[in-house]
Design brief:
Structural class: alpha/beta
Number of helices: 12
Radius of gyration: 27 Å
Strand order of the largest sheet: 8-9-11-10-12-13-14-15
């Protein structure tokens, strides 16, 4: 406003009387109106850019409380003992393997198996219902598709104990699945954004087969553990402290070395724990499934996917990364996105890492995973999958997933030189 006032003063000093201007140059009046309108339009555009950028940033940072029930459930057919479900044919519902349908706001869950009928013409697919764990699937009309096949360890045939881990703000529940007696290596399973500790059950049997005890944890803002004071995701830069608390628990209960398993954002969390934890020397390996290796890349990709202008996407990153953006993002402190770019920090990674990532991942592009392996081949093994979408590599081909993870961990945990790949583990597996 002060600048506008100074401009007005300068114009009045240099200009002839207003009546003379109106008589001789009537277009000057319209120029002034245009200038004011232009300034208003510029402010409007700036406000719209800021609003869209802050909205996008908040969408990324705000914990998922309700899933979008975007899957229609057309019908459930067959007897109560041999049910099948008819669904719209999508890349997810036509992929091979085992999955879950969640319905009734998440209160219902059913395990979905093999495809029995597929009609591209009708756009439908029919699959076996292996088990309904909760709810009435036959009465459901909408739900969502998920990769966490089992609701709890017992459903996966695994004996377990419910334990509590002391974290900032209280106690976080976890499932403890014991391996061999007095197991010295513990696997800590870190789920992804918007998921729960159910996600790690797909890997628990593999870990147990290797003699490891597993700890499937919850962490801040996931709906089970205490929420962070600001109620925002830290994208890995705050959640790793809850992983550190889980490592402390494991070490206090007999563990000597740790393997971190991480899915999606859980991969970013695991990388930060391996980098920053006081227990990082005890972390012997990382197994990352569809991980976020570079948040800058993921945010840019998601902005393009949502048709957000590139400049707006960059501004949203600035809001997340700078203290001035806190009022718009709700973050208690800015997040250093560069600290979570492991492609740029490839030479600072010090833990042997196996990355399993589908080349058609529609949420977290696999490019940074492959690039990290190219830049640090001594420590990083990249295992590409196809047709697995996001974090469903195990679902599409559980035998291959378990074979690769078992072989890699068997070698790495016994290798005298960390990071040296074992025989045949070249990071590429033929389909």
């Amino acid at each position: 406003m002060a600048l506008f006032d100074r401009r007005k003063t300068l114009i009045s000093v240099a200009a002839p009387p207003a009546e003379e201007i109106r008589r001789q140059l009537p277009w000057v009046r319209w120029m002034g109106v245009g200038a004011i309108a232009g300034a208003g339009l510029g402010s409007l555009l700036a406000g719209a850019t800021s609003g869209l950028a802050s909205y996008f940033a908040r969408q990324v940072l705000t914990p998922v409380r309700e899933h979008d029930q975007n899957l229609e459930i057309y019908a459930v057919v067959g007897s109560s003992q041999h049910q099948e479900v008819i669904l719209p044919a999508t890349p997810d519902t036509t992929a091979p393997g085992l999955y879950s349908i969640y319905f009734d706001g998440g209160r219902g869950q059913a395990r979905i198996g093999a495809i029995t009928s597929y009609s591209p013409k009708d756009g439908t697919v029919q699959r076996t219902v292996e088990r309904v764990y909760s709810g009435d699937l036959a009465a459901a009309r909408r739900g969502w598709w998920g990769g966490a096949v089992y609701p709890d360890p017992a459903a996966a045939g695994l004996a377990n104990e419910e334990v509590r881990i002391a974290v900032e703000g209280g106690q976080a529940p976890a499932w403890l699945i014991r391996g061999e007696e007095n197991a010295r290596t513990w696997a800590i399973m870190v789920h992804g954004r918007g998921a729960t500790r159910q996600e790690g059950l797909r890997a628990a049997r593999t870990a147990r087969g290797l003699g490891m005890t597993s700890l499937l944890i919850s962490y801040r803002n996931d709906g089970e553990a205490p929420a962070a004071p600001d109620g925002r995701y830290g994208l890995g830069l705050t959640e790793w402290r809850d992983v550190e608390a889980a490592i402390t628990y494991a070490l206090e209960h007999g563990a000597e070395e740790i393997v971190l398993f991480g899915w999606s954002m859980g991969g970013a969390i695991s990388l930060q724990a391996a980098d920053q934890s006081v227990h990082r020397i005890r972390i012997k390996a990382l197994v990352l499934d569809g991980p976020v290796i570079n948040w800058i890349d993921v945010l840019a990709y998601q902005a393009r996917l949502n048709r957000i202008p590139e400049a707006v996407g960059r501004f949203s990153q600035w809001l997340i990364s700078n203290r001035a953006g806190r009022l718009l993002t709700g973050l208690a402190a800015p997040l250093d996105l560069k600290k979570m770019n492991w492609v740029a920090r490839y030479d600072q990674l010090s833990v042997p890492t196996l990355i399993l990532h589908s080349q058609d991942d529609e949420f977290v592009p696999y490019g940074p995973s492959a690039e990290l392996a190219d830049k640090n081949p001594r420590l990083v093994t990249f295992e590409p999958f196809s047709g697995a979408s996001h974090t469903k590599e195990w679902n599409v081909d559980p035998e291959r997933w378990e074979r690769v993870v078992t072989g890699w961990l068997t070698h790495v945990l016994s290798a005298p030189v960390p990071g040296v790949k074992g025989p045949g583990m070249n990071g590429v597996q033929p389909d």
